[in-house]
């Protein structure tokens, strides 16, 4: 390249940015799976689905936080109005800083979204001056002040044209004065408010007392209160309280644990400067429940997770992080994996689209359909002729698949309402035989025929013991669920259920006549109390038992049994596990191991696996050794690792070197009888030292002073 | 009263104003005024004022300097994170922004002195300038030469430094010696003083007498627990809503006392914020009980393994390491209880507080208390660091030490009992202290 420079020197040329086209997500998606021509279609479906899931979950989160956010906004608004009033009360007010303690729960990764929407809402409707700070960027008071000032002054956008210059000036000034103080902030605030008020030229300063410029509050959000250094926070609050007269400050504390941390972190002299109000956000388990409800327990999204994958995701949530965001990330991973690795996932979309895509399927794809286990099972049931035509005639196969896909969609349409019905009936039973949360019931149903389980039987027994009005109200709830579904079968079920409910009501009107019958039935119990003789007692008890057995059921009991049979019929017709459905593989992602490996990594196990069986990582056939031993030709570190496993707590470096050298010589194919076999030459020595220091770096050994020329092992166990 | 505040060179009316605002501090104000002399006369180079919180130190200085319109700079040492900010603020308030912008990037004391001199030549002091340093005790942590220099700043020009502190001068004196400031003590306000000051800002609705008797009742309840003027003001503000209903001084006592008692447990401790307190006052008596204070919320929801990690950390912190074998080894048969319990070890570990433990021990205990097999995944380790950021654990070793980090458990016994109850783990059975 040439330059226009006259002088000699070194020039840096920036590579022309436009030449290199960076790979898009689509390129990665289609490129890697290669060949399969429908990968573009799959990418489209996947992208589309993910966008829908994302917007849905975001809307959901906003919806769930609405109450808390609204009351926070109210507080902010209030604090800007009270600052101006000058009656006796506000004169007496020890100038407290309004503070919102927002308790968010320990799922810290989720908080970002909440704070994001909080500051957006604040900026939209209350004040342009919002700064949110995080503990890790504010280790000292100086940093904290700097961050707050930068965020407040830097983020302000002016209506005027020269705003860029101004902010530059501002930042230049900030940088010049090396330490930013709150008085600069006050000046800045005053110019801001004055400017925005004089921006409307219509109003003249006729009444200066009334025409006071609006003073929007300056909100400072501490995202993770617990992580802040208490000393820094205390000093910062002290400083702020000095300026509260001049600057309408407001704090929002993001609290992950419990509100009492405020008292642990701030002494009374500091917390007395604050006027703390408590806000509790929705618990993360409730949040997850709604997300599952909207995302997973709905026929709306064709993409499904099988029981194992669901289990992995839920247990990561419950056991490890409580983070809804990570749960959704997990769903995203499963989604990507499904569409990326399964060519047949083209059929995993809305019915219309799926039908279209089905018609486009290539011969190769149809072969894949034939290989699906569920399809094979389906074929086995058919007669000989049909089997032949399915395996040879692509057109016929497409026709059959069309039917099967439609059937799968219908199955989903009916499955979820029935699941909800069963859940409403069982979720309040004592000891929750079918789970308290609907996701538990869903997992049971995904895995096996729910009606065959013992828990289901005991749930039914418990249902039979319900009082009449309890049962009726539960059935009414079920009817509401069924009513909302647009499917023929569910409509019919709804009608049936309504009829049953009507009968229950008629029962009420006939109740008077029944009560007299019951009188007779219950009378033996009353007689019982009079008898004291043991033999007599036993006799009457036996009689009672018998009479009960033979006794005709009361009309309520008859009706109750009818209702429960009806429910059982629904369950048996609609709640069979998806594995029973032909072509279910198209919609269900089932590789739980992949999800687990990606989301819940086990770094130590992988390092050990890499060291003890390098073949898995390097994929070199030479390294393939039987019975788990390491081949001689493995990388140096693997050999050193293998040898060190045979040692005790302290390893003699020289012995180790000798052993290493012997192994490596064997790998080089030297004659074991020759003189320099296993002799340590410089190269081997160097390689050994490198391997040892790599092991030290990985934390398997460390140097020790206990014994010369020895290193200490840091792990237990041998080969 | 006003006779105390007499000093030639000041406007009579202004002195009168000052005196009105400085109830019960006339002595101190008079003394200060006589030290200050006439505006153009030199004052004593440095004055050290000390007294407890809310004894009116800042109040007196603010009122005097403002009302008498003397050139001054009031600087809070909390705010001066570095001495350069201090220099800047002083120069700014005496000479304007041009002077403060002359300071180099990280100015030293001599830079400050140079610029101050230079500015003095251009604008010599016609009146004594005052620098008031609030919370002066923080100066002890600043550069070693700063405090001695401030005490002798008068050598530059007609300027005096007034230090306000809650700590007596004995705790200040640098061991290298320095110019001794003049010491001035502000004693605590007596009950009578407090009464007088609080009665001053009477509510426009009431007669002065009525308000005064109300303050009297309030002081009767609170004086034993709190003598801080600022806190008392806070209480006055939040209890006055009840007085509004009353007009009769005699009935007042009977009706107001229970409310004051309640206020003592809530507003005074800031268990309930002032706004919430107001809401409580408007609510019916019964509902008000439902509003719980800050410290009532101690429950924390944690993921399952985090709970066990915390339990393990608690055990590691409060059990001696040698007892781990007894608690967590299935077949610990040989260790007899007698030699395992050391006789001389009488002090409870709970009295001694949590002890640090290494990560290895935490994990070893964790794996033996958790009831299922747990893979050593990355998220187990990240949960430990989450617990540290949530301040449920504290890291004892330095952040940089990756090798064998040490932790301490930072939760209380009640807290850990509640946590272990949720996972059906009987922690008391595993604690050495409760054996
Ligand atoms: N003599 C007084 N008259 C009226 N108000 C006073 C008086 N002394 C103190 N105060 C008020 O009490 C509060 C605390 O006083 P302050 O001067 O800040 O105390 P210190 O600086 O000693 O901690 C201030 O709000 C102040 O207005
Ligand atoms: Mg003060």
Can you walk me through this structure?
Chain A: Belongs to the ORC3 family. Chain A: GO terms for molecular function: DNA replication origin binding. The complex is a heterodimer of chains A (about 725) and B (about 425). Chain A is of the alpha/beta class and about 725 residues long. Chain A has 31 helices and 10 strands. Chain A has 3 domains: about 65-155 and about 215-280, P-loop containing nucleotide triphosphate hydrolases (Rossmann fold), CATH 3.40.50; about 285-510 and about 555-590, no CATH class; about 605-715, Arc Repressor Mutant, subunit A (Orthogonal Bundle). In chain A, about 60% of the residues lie in helices and about 5% in strands. In chain A, helix 12 runs antiparallel to helix 13 (about 325-340). The longest helix of chain A is centred in the first third of the chain and has 44 residues, at about 40-80. Chain A is globular and about 100 Å long. The two termini of chain A are about 60 Å apart. Chain B is of the alpha/beta class. Chain B has 3 domains: about 35-185, 3-Layer(aba) Sandwich (Rossmann fold); about 190-295, no CATH class; about 305-435, no CATH class. In chain B, strands 2-3-4-1-5 form a 5-stranded parallel sheet, with helices on both faces. Chain B has a 3-stranded antiparallel sheet with strand order 6-8-7. In chain B, helix 8 (about 190-200) crosses helix 9, helix 9 crosses helix 10 and helix 14 (about 305-320) crosses helix 19 (about 380-390). Chain B is flat. Classes of the chains: A alpha/beta (about 725), B alpha/beta (about 425). The structure holds adenosine-5'-diphosphate and magnesium ion. Magnesium ion (MG) binds near residues 57, 58, 134 and 164 of chain B.
């Amino acid at each position: 390249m040439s330059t226009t420079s006259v002088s000699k020197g070194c020039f840096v040329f920036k590579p022309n940015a436009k030449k290199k086209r960076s790979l898009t997500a689509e390129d990665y998606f289609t490129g890697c799976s290669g060949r399969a021509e429908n990968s573009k279609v799959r990418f489209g479906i996947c992208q589309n689905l993910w966008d829908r899931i994302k917007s849905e979950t975001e809307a959901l989160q906003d919806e769930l936080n609405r109450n808390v956010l609204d009351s926070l906004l109210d507080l902010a608004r209030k604090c800007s109005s009270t600052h101006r009033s000058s009656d006796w009360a506000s004169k007496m007010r020890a100038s407290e800083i309004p503070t919102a303690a927002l308790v968010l729960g320990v799922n810290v990764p989720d908080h970002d979204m909440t704070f994001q929407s909080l500051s957006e809402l604040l900026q939209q409707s209350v004040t342009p001056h919002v700064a949110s700070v995080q503990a890790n960027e504010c280790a000292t008071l100086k940093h904290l002040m700097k961050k707050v000032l930068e965020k407040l002054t830097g983020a302000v956008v002016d209506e005027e044209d020269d705003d860029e210059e101004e902010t530059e000036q501002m930042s230049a000034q900030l940088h010049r004065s090396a330490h930013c103080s709150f008085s600069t902030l006050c000046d800045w605030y005053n110019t801001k408010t004055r400017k925005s008020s004089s921006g409307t030229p219509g109003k003249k300063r006729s009444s200066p007392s009334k025409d006071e410029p609006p003073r929007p509050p300056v909100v400072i959000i501490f995202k993770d209160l617990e992580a802040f250094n208490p000393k820094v926070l205390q000093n910062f609050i002290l400083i702020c309280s000095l300026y509260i007269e001049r600057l309408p400050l407001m704090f929002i504390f993001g609290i992950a644990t419990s509100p009492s941390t405020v008292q642990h972190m701030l002494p009374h002299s500091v917390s007395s400067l604050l006027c703390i109000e408590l806000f509790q956000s929705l618990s993360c388990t409730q949040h997850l429940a709604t997300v599952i409800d909207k995302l997973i327990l709905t026929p709306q999204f064709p993409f499904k997770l099988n029981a194992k994958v669901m289990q992995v995701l839920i247990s990561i949530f419950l056991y490890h992080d409580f983070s809804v965001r990570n749960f959704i990330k997990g769903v995203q991973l499963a989604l990507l994996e499904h569409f990326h690795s399964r060519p047949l996932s083209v059929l995993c979309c809305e019915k219309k689209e799926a039908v279209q895509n089905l018609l486009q399927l290539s011969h190769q794809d149809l072969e894949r359909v034939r290989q699906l286990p569920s399809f094979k099972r389906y074929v086995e049931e058919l007669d000989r002729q049909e089997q032949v035509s399915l395996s040879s005639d692509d057109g016929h196969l497409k026709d059959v698949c069309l039917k099967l896909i439609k059937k799968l969609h219908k199955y989903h349409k009916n499955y979820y309402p029935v699941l909800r019905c069963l859940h409403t009936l069982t979720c309040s039973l004592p000891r929750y035989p079918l789970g308290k949360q609907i996701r538990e019931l869903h997992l049971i149903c995904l895995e096996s025929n729910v009606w065959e389980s013992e828990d289901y039987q005991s749930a039914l027994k418990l249902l039979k013991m319900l009082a009449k009005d309890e049962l009726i109200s539960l059935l009414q709830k079920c009817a509401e669920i069924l009513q909302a579904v647009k499917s023929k079968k569910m409509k019919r079920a709804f009608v049936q259920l309504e009829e049953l409910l009507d009968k229950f009501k008629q029962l009420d009107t006939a109740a008077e006549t029944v009560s007299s019958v019951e009188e007779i039935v219950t009378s033996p119990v009353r007689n019982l109390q009079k008898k004291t003789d043991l033999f007599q007692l036993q006799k009457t008890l036996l009689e009672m038992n018998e009479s009960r057995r033979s006794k005709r059921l009361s009309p309520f009991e008859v009706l109750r049994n009818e209702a429960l049979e009806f429910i059982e019929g629904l369950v048996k017709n609609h709640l069979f596990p998806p594995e029973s459905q032909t072509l279910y593989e198209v919609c269900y992602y089932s590789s739980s191991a992949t999800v687990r490996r990606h989301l819940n990594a086990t770094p130590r196990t992988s390092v050990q696996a890499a060291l003890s069986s390098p073949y898995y990582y390097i994929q070199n056939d030479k390294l393939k050794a039987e019975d788990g031993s390491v081949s001689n030709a493995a990388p140096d570190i693997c050999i050193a690792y293998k040898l060190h496993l045979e040692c005790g707590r302290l390893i003699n470096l020289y012995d180790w070197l000798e052993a290493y050298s012997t192994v490596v010589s064997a790998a080089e194919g030297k004659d074991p009888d020759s003189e320099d076999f296993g002799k340590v030459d410089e190269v081997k020595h160097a390689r050994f030292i490198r391997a040892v220091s790599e092991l030290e770096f990985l934390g398997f050994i460390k140097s020790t002073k206990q014994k010369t020329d020895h290193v200490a092992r840091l792990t237990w166990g041998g080969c | 009263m006003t006779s105390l505040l007499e000093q030639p060179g000041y406007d009579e009316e202004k002195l009168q104003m000052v005196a009105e605002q400085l109830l019960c501090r006339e002595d101190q104000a008079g003394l200060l005024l006589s030290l200050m002399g006439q505006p153009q006369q030199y004052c004593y180079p440095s004055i050290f004022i000390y007294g407890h919180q809310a004894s009116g130190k800042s109040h007196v200085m603010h009122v005097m300097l403002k009302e008498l319109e003397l050139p001054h700079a009031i600087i809070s040492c909390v705010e001066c994170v570095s001495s350069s900010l201090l220099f800047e603020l002083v120069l700014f308030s005496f000479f304007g922004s041009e002077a403060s912008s002359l300071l180099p990037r990280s100015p030293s004391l001599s830079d400050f002195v140079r610029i101050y001199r230079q500015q003095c030549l251009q604008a010599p002091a016609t009146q004594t300038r005052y620098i008031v340093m609030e919370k002066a005790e923080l100066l002890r942590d600043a550069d070693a030469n700063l405090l001695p220099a401030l005490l002798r700043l008068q050598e530059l020009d007609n300027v005096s430094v007034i230090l306000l502190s809650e700590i007596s001068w004995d705790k200040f004196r640098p061991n290298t010696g320095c110019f001794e400031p003049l010491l001035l003590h502000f004693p605590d306000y007596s009950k009578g003083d407090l009464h007088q000051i609080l009665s001053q800002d009477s509510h426009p609705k009431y007669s002065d007498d009525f308000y005064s008797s109300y303050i009297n009742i309030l002081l009767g309840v609170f004086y034993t627990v709190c003598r801080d003027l600022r806190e008392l003001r806070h209480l006055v503000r939040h209890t006055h809503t009840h007085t509004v209903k009353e007009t009769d001084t005699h009935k007042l006592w009977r009706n107001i006392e229970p409310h004051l008692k309640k206020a003592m447990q809530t507003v005074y401790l800031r268990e309930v914020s002032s706004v919430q307190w107001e809401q409580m006052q408007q609510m019916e008596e019964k509902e008000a009980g439902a509003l719980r204070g800050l410290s009532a919320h101690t429950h924390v929801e944690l993921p399952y393994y985090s709970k066990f990690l915390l339990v393990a950390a608690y055990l590691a912190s409060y059990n001696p390491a040698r007892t781990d074998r007894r608690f967590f080894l299935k077949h610990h048969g040989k260790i007899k209880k007698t030699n395992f319990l050391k006789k001389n070890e009488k002090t409870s570990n709970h009295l001694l507080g949590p002890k640090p433990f290494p990560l290895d021990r935490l994990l070893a205990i964790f794996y033996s208390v958790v009831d299922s097999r747990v893979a050593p995944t990355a998220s187990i380790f990240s949960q430990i660091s989450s617990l540290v950021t949530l301040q449920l654990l504290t890291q004892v070793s330095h952040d940089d030490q990756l090798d064998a980090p040490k932790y301490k458990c930072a939760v209380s016994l009640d807290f850990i009992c509640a946590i272990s109850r949720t996972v059906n783990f009987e922690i008391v059975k595993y604690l050495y202290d409760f054996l």
